[in-house]
Design goal:
There is one protein chain. The chain is α/β, with parallel strands linked by helices. The chain has a single domain, classed as 3-Layer(aba) Sandwich (Alkaline Phosphatase, subunit A). It has helices spanning 34-41, 56-65, 88-94, 152-155, 164-185, 209-213, 235-243, 253-283, 315-318, 343-350, 368-371, 433-446, 449-470, 500-504, and strands at residues 9-15, 44-46, 49-50, 98-103, 118-119, 158-159, 192-197, 206-207, 290-296, 319-320, 322-325, 332-334, 338-339, 380-384, 393-398, 401-406, 412-415. Helix 5 (164-185) runs parallel beside helix 8 (253-283).
Length: 511
């Protein structure tokens, strides 16, 4: 029996690599997402939400723990998420919630639950240390190592009957929808936390013919910032150009338009699946007492500045949608910069927990005051620590000012209020010298960049030794496989190279 209580159900619906600006609720004019539009129309929409790290696993670990990735050892996509780190799933489970996940959270390590009582699907990516980058800062010969996107993912854009990502997401949604109906019929009256996490619109930018054809007569918008000549880009952007293989392959305007069309098609597919979940909540009687949160783990450059994917701290890669609706939450647009690090204390507050429930360190703060129209402000923090950079890079946004700092690259300073496209770097402008010094001082109080680099190298070296040893003799997989053993053709597993394994799963459409 379903009862309305002071502990609402919570549904966290996540996507992968969805930049906020393409959604109509964030100003986009092309992408078709009617279900998400309806959600935004009755929700609190955070206009300036940031991920804590522009890469899947570290961003998700940081989000779930409310801690900066560097503070929990989440250095890269092959780093272990320590089982002793409390997550929002632990806190809500301790509050009496049934905690369940369907889909991707990119857990790495023997613990594949991290506070979730039930997992409905496996991970799509490997759960061992095989995606650990080379311990040195950069090895150009290894830029196409396991887990690294490359320009083939852009050039492959188009319609396919099936891909691994499509199969995975539809499996995730099947289990999630069934779980909602199962909860409605269950004798278990506990409130639930259901996390539903898809892998789209991650590259490759491929969707089904149906969603590709939705944009047949729709002009595809070009990037807002055209490709910047390579010799005019900042040093880190020049490095990423070769890291992703763009120095070997030209991505012309036609290829860019196809990739953006595929990206929009994938988001429309996500939107349809989100609609299915909302229908299930409505039909099961849960909708009135359920908080619904829509977010993404990070963004995608999508051709902006001539750049693709992530591993950069420019806005398209780190600005994400964050939309929250539910009992007592009014429709409003919130311009205060916030972070996915804020989700853990927010979820604990939304569960009705008393003050002091969170007893572990946090780098975020609850969004509850903002949800109810009150002021709330601390600087927003983000990190980029892994192999896509010659040294750790960190970001601090305080008000309109955004600083990016690293030992390997010159500092970058932008005023996002007057320069939202980040075209005017103020770091060398004498007029901004005091602001640069002030933000740099704040950042250096938070991060010891030299120590971060040393810790990262030591951790990656240790994981490399462990991974090499565990590949010998009898192997014990950490991948969680519910029910029948998952077929290796359906997921990316240890030893597989991205995007090669993705490309093997393409099934061209016959129509």
């Amino acid at each position: 029996m379903i009862e309305t209580t002071s502990m609402p159900n919570i549904v966290l619906f996540m996507t992968d690599q969805l930049t906020a600006s393409v959604l109509s609720s964030y100003g986009g004019e092309v992408c078709k997402s009617s279900n998400l539009d309806r959600l935004a129309a009755r929700s609190a929409v955070f206009e300036q939400a940031y991920c804590p790290y522009p890469l899947c696993a570290p961003s998700r670990f940081a989000m779930m723990s409310g801690r900066l990735a560097s503070r929990i050892g989440a250095w890269d996509n092959g780093a272990e998420f320590p089982a002793a780190v409390p997550t929002f799933a632990h806190y809500l489970r301790g509050r009496g919630y049934y905690t369940c996940i369907s889909g991707k959270m990119h857990f790495v390590g023997p613990d594949q639950f991290h506070g979730f009582e039930e997992r409905l699907t496996t991970e799509i990516y490997p759960s061992d240390f095989s995606w650990t980058p080379a311990p040195q800062e950069r090895d150009a010969s290894d830029r196409f190592g396991a887990g690294v996107s490359s320009v083939e993912s852009v050039l492959d854009a188009g319609p396919m009957a099936r891909t691994m990502q499509i199969d995975y997401d539809e499996d995730v949604m099947h289990h999630a929808v069934r779980e909602v109906y199962a909860r409605a019929r269950s004798a278990d009256s506990r409130p639930f936390l259901l996390t539903v996490s898809l892998t789209q619109p991650h590259d490759p930018y491929i969707t089904t013919p149906f969603f590709w054809d939705l944009y047949e007569n729709t002009p595809i918008d070009p990037p807002r910032v055209p490709a910047i000549p390579l010799d005019q880009r900042d040093p880190h952007s020049r490095m990423l150009h070769s890291h992703y293989g763009q120095d070997k392959t030209d991505i012309d305007p036609s290829a860019t338009a196809r990739a953006r069309r595929g990206y929009y098609g994938m988001i429309s597919h996500i939107d349809a699946m989100f609609g299915r979940l909302m229908d299930a909540l409505l039909e099961s009687g849960f909708i009135e007492n359920t908080v619904v949160i829509f977010a993404s783990d990070h963004g995608d450059m999508m051709g902006e500045r001539g750049m693709w994917f992530k591993k950069t701290l420019f806005e398209p890669a780190i600005r994400v949608p964050l939309i929250i609706s539910g009992p007592g939450i009014a429709q409003r647009r919130i311009s205060t910069p916030v972070s996915l690090l804020d989700l853990l204390p927010t979820l604990v507050d939304l569960s009705g927990a008393p003050a002091g429930t969170v007893c572990t360190p946090l780098d975020g703060q609850s969004l509850a005051p903002l949800l109810h129209g009150r002021s709330n402000h601390i600087p927003v923090l983000a990190e980029h620590l892994d192999g896509g950079t010659d040294a750790p890079r960190v970001m601090l946004r305080d008000g309109d000012l955004k600083l990016v700092l690293s030992r390997a690259y010159p500092p970058m300073l932008h005023n996002l209020g007057s320069d939202p496209l980040e075209l005017n770097d103020l770091a060398s402008d004498p007029i901004a010298a005091d602001e640069l010094a002030n933000l740099t001082s704040k950042a250096e109080e938070i991060w010891d960049l030299d120590a971060l680099a040393a810790e990262k190298r030591a951790n990656q070296t240790a994981r490399t030794v462990v991974n090499k040893a565990l590949q010998q003799g009898r192997r014990q997989a950490w991948d969680y496989t519910p029910g029948a053993l998952a077929q290796n053709t359906s997921y990316v597993r240890s030893g597989d190279t991205f995007p090669d394994v993705e490309r093997r799963s393409y099934l061209p459409s016959k129509s």
